[in-house]
Amino acid sequence: MTAVPPLTRKLLRDLWRLRGQALAIALVMAAGVGMVVMSYGMMRSLEATRAAYYERYDLAQVWVPLRRAPDSLARELAAVDGVAAIETRVSGAATLDLPGITEPVLARLHSLPVRLNRLVLRSGHLPRADRPGEVIVSEAFAKAARLSLGSHLPALLYGKQIELTLVGTAISPEHVYAVAPGQIFPDNRRFGIIWMAREPLSAALDMRDGFNEVLVRLGPGASEPEVIRRIDRVTAAYGPVGAYGRELDISNRFLSSEIDQLRTTVRILPPIFLAVSAFLLNILLARLIDTEREVIGLLKAFGYRNRPIAWHYAQLALLLSGGGVLLGWVLGAWLGRGLAVIYQEYFAFPFLAFTAGIDIYLIAAGLALAAVLAGACTAVWRAQALTPAEAMRPPAPARYSTGALANRLARLLPDEPSRMILRGFLRRPMRTLASVLGLAMALALYVASASSTDNVERMIQLVFERGQRADLALSFSEARDGRVLRELAVLPGVQRVETYRAVSVELVHGARRERETVLGLPRGAALMRIVALDGAAIEPAPGGALISSQLARKLRIAAGDRLEVQVTEGQRQRFALPIAAVVDVPLGASVVVERATLNRLLREGDVVSGAYLMTDPARTSELFAALKRTPLVASVTVAANAVRGIRETIAESMGIVTLFNTLFAVLIVAGVTYTGARISLSERARDLASMRVLGFRKGEAGFVLIGEQALLAIVALPLGLLLGVALSHFIANSFSSDMFLIPAAVSTRTLAEGVIVVGLSAAATAVLIRRSADALDLVRALKTRE
Amino acid sequence: MGERAAIYRTAGLTKSYGTGATTVHALRGVDLTVHAGELLVLLGPSGSGKSTLLNILGGLDSATSGQAWFEDTEITALDADALTEYRRRSIGFVFQFYNLIAALTARENVQLITDIAEDPMTPEEALALVGLEERMDHFPAQLSGGEQQRVAIARAIAKRPKVLLCDEPTGALDSQTGIRVLSALETVNREIGATVMIITHNAVIADMADEVIHFADGAIAAHRSNPRRKPPGELAW
């Protein structure tokens, strides 16, 4: 019995007494720590998984597209300095006519890989050498287009009708995202990857004894740009487009962009969560220990030294929050793993390499505990800086403000309890400020977390409702004469046609180079407009170009500068393009000029690459049937499908993270409200007891407490909403990946939800606190101190 | 009594709070000698400076000017750490509102002190001395006011202090309970030889003392010695 020191017993009993607050503090702590562990755990797992996937299935480092090369070139390429291994293959494009899908379905065909870009077979078997029609398709395509093993796929390959049979599905590190040429987002129902044996594919593409693509693995230490230059020299005679590295591979680029975006979320939001919860814990612990001021004075009077007293309260603080750390670790690791599993399926990785990293656990816990200890120590320090005689005196003879403003304010109030609330706030302005700020920050976290989906909706609205207003976008298999417009205009259901010109180019500014597409739009275009983040539609000035701010940053170019353009297809023209304006565009369209200007610079006549169509929805299937018969159309993009694609890719992946972040924010709001009110109750216990003894009813006395909390919440609401909007802008700004810019657009719905979350936690807290206030033992509350 | 050594001496001790027009002079130059083993009662109205004197002598507060010695140590010259050591080794306190720690039982409240003292009695002995051996495992909330005050006394004497300072120990108690508490203090003075200083409003209590000091307006107004100490049992009010 005597083995346990009395201070330890006090500690344990205090913990039991404070269990409600311990729970609330633990939740706040768990939210901060859990958020960090979850996010970093998920992030690191995804990165490790991607790296392992690329490594294990030998994703190429350089792609070399060619028009047609003889087998003898392979030996030359293999001998290029810096090349460790090469694989030649035959690739092509086909149009499929699938039952149940009105639009033409595009497919990319590859000869089956041997050593590089190896497949992960997901069902069925590889095509057999003696069955030339057997193919396997990308798993996502098979699912979206409802293909099953044994399905027949009528395909049109460069004018040849062939019958393919599906014998398996696979995923490949090369096509984590299968994106059709010219598209930005995957549309798995209308675009798929097909792998088949090399022999039949070569035969169909007239590529016997040759190949049209080379995959390269670099030797250790080889410089990629250097090797690409050497390869381009060797292959100059065999194709128009140069070799490119992984970072330009569209699938990898998309994947990187998504992972970058997640990494941004991880780098910004969880540390903010942790910082806010640490700040809140600091305030809460300091206030909690302030209420123990007399005990500290007493222990000092008995001759306890400062260190054991400080250690006692440090232990209290650590135990109060230690549960939160454990909970945060467990919750964070569990949710992080869960998220990684969801993402693994979403990204179509064949396996998951889970690594959270002990450093993250320790850093998260260390930061949170440091804040807690700092809060506890400030309060102990404040108490022990007093002489014991002062510390033991009730902190009462409080000097209430006698300021003229305070008195005038107080006179405006209807009754004494209201004045008690007001004077309580004014007497300790810093504490009032800290309470308001704490609640406001909790609310800001909620708003910032929940607004991610608002931002994506705003992006969709900007891009598709204000910018790309065409129902269909067509691209031609090669550039056509502008008169094609008239042919398109008479197709069934077409209401309006606008044509565009697009060329693949390399943009050069000083030492910086970027591979991009220059888009030429007709003057006064209505179906495809460039819309900036602020919603304004911008027309390219005659003779000048609009450039997206992301690309301008990469090229270090500004309005008024001249951009050097090297066309990488056809005639390979070179020209200079003056930059008229740098525009913040949410998505796509990196360099835009007037079509007439582009035609002039390309020294060609009225030539177009595709068209935007506005159509009658009632005649869609008729139109698609007509388009399928039109050989000039290489691809058709349906705007509605693209919007769905974006929603499915960005919105869904963001949605899960957003949901978890939002839950953590709700925990913080609830924890802060409850703990704040609890401490307020213990500080006001004497006042409340006095009022009750004087004949105030429970409700009237409780009003002082509840009113105080309500007033804090009311002041915190607008501040929290403002902070939330600012935080949301900050996060949206930090998102700018090289593929899209996220506009910040907190919806009123999100703000209203934030208000409701705070309101509900405040109301629930009020009920709990009212119950405790009503149960107050009047005699004890009044008897314990002078 | 002249052969007894002085345990406290003060010279020109003053204490003021606040500055300028709002300055409150709690002590205005107190010269006093207290001998070891005495039972001393300080009388006087509220605000007369008795508590301030006791707080300074107990090392709970600092003086504005003047000196105070405990045996050969000038306590007015000690820093906060040295005062802590002084309280820890030599002083026991009893307060009007007991100041028991609500989260600890009677025994544990006493143990709080015996854990840090050099040559303490056991908590059980200390509680037996104030007649509470039966209620050792009760929490403060389960004890009456008089019992709580006796726990506070047991807590104060358990370390065998040289001095026991009591600020209105019976102020919150009825007369019968008050007398039990005073008996406990008298026992402590007699059994362990501690110097006991008691602050009170109640002039009747002065009859149990060796020395009686009247305070008024921050200074000693009168000082008398009782020829005979009345046992607390004979007091009535």
Describe the sheet with the most strands of chain B: 6 strands, mixed
**Main interface by residue count:** A-B, 30 and 32 residues
Strand line-up of the largest beta sheet of chain B: 6-7-8-3-9-10
The portion of residues forming beta strands of chain B comes to: 25-35%
How many distinct helices of chain A?
23
**Class by alpha and beta content of chain A:** alpha+beta
Individual helix count of chain B: 6
| First-last Cα distance of chain B | 29 Å
For the sheet with most strands of chain A, the description reads:
6 strands, mixed, barrel
Multimeric organization: heterodimer
Q: What pattern of helices and strands is seen along the backbone of chain B? A: EEEHEEHEHHHEHEEE
Uncertain parts of chain B: none
CA(first)-CA(last) distance of chain A: 33 Å
Topology summary:
The complex is a heterodimer of chains A (786) and B (237).
Chain A: H1 6-17, H2 19-56, E1 62-70, H3 72-78, E2 83-89, E3 91-96, E4 105-111, E5 120-124, E6 134-138, H4 139-144, E7 152-157, E8 160-171, E9 191-196, H5 198-205, E10 210-218, H6 224-235, E11 244-245, H7 250-290, H8 293-301, H9 306-346, H10 358-385, H11 388-392, H12 404-412, H13 416-427, H14 429-450, H15 452-467, E12 472-481, H16 484-489, E13 494-509, E14 512-521, E15 530-531, E16 537-538, E17 545-548, H17 549-555, E18 562-567, E19 574-583, E20 591-594, H18 595-601, E21 607-615, H19 620-629, E22 633-638, H20 639-693, H21 698-734, H22 748-774, H23 778-783
Parallel strand pairs in A: 4-9, 6-8, 14-20, 17-19
Antiparallel strand pairs in A: 1-10, 1-11, 2-10, 3-4, 3-7, 5-8, 6-9, 7-8, 12-21, 12-22, 13-14, 13-18, 13-21, 15-16, 17-20, 18-19
Chain B: E1 6-17, E2 24-35, E3 39-43, H1 50-57, E4 65-70, E5 73-74, H2 80-90, E6 91-94, H3 106-114, H4 123-129, H5 145-157, E7 163-167, H6 175-191, E8 195-200, E9 211-216, E10 219-225
Parallel strand pairs in B: 3-8, 3-9, 6-7, 7-8
Antiparallel strand pairs in B: 1-2, 1-4, 4-5, 9-10
Helix pairs in contact in B: 3-4, 3-5, 4-5, 5-6
